[in-house]
Amino acid sequence: MNGSQMLFSRINSKIAETVKKVRKLGYEVENISAGEFYEYISGETPTCDIVTLDDILSNEYFMLHEIVEISELKKMSVIIDKQTIMKNYPKVYEA
User: Fold this and answer.
1) For the residues 62-71, what does the mean pLDDT come to?
2) How far apart are the C-alpha atoms of 74 and 88, rounded to whole Å?
3) Whether pLDDT at 1 is above 80
4) What's the farthest any 2 CA atoms get from each other in the chain?
5) Contact at 8 Å (CB) between 52 and 42?
6) Segment 16-65, tens digit of pLDDT
7) What is the reported pLDDT for 56?
8) Phi/psi zone of residue 48: left (φ > 0), alpha (ψ -120 to 50 degrees), beta?
9) What would the mean pLDDT of 72-92 be, rounded to a whole number?
10) What phi and psi values does residue 50 have, to the nearest 5 degrees?
11) What are phi and psi for residue 25, nearest 5 degrees?
12) Which DSSP string do the residues of 35-86 spell out, in sequence order?
């Protein structure tokens, strides 16, 4: 398994773990792929966020926040990619 495959495997595992938690709370999560998650997290932000992918993957609260935010954006029919935040700012904060 190469580096990117290992990373996407880790992302998939963290997504699954987080989805399980939020579903227990009664929240209906949209399907989020590892690719979408990676693109969203690694995209540019207007606030120049300094939180890294590793920071997010290693913190259950960051993961909960990002999974719900991405899910809410998908419910609004927003395409999830590297440009999502910049193209949909400040709508992203509604999510």
Assistant:
1) 97
2) 12
3) no
4) 38
5) no
6) 999 999 999 999 999 999 999 999 999 988 887 889 999 999 999 999 99
7) 97
8) left
9) 92
10) -115, 10
11) -85, 0
12) HHHHHHHHS--TT-----HHHHHT-HHHHHHHHHHHHHHHHTT---STTHHH
Question: H or E segment at 11?
Answer: helix 3-24
In this predicted structure, what is the pLDDT of residue 35? 97
Looking at residue 16, what is its pLDDT?
98
CA-nearest of 58, 67, 76, 71 to 21 is: 67
In the block, tokens 């938690």 appear at: 21
Which tokens is 85 given?
A: 């935040």
The dihedral built from the CA positions of residue 5, 6, 8 and 12, taken in this order, carries a sign that is positive
- The string over 30-57, giving b where at least 16 C-beta atoms fall within 10 Å of a residue's C-beta and e elsewhere, is eebebebbbbbbebeeeeeeeeeeeebb
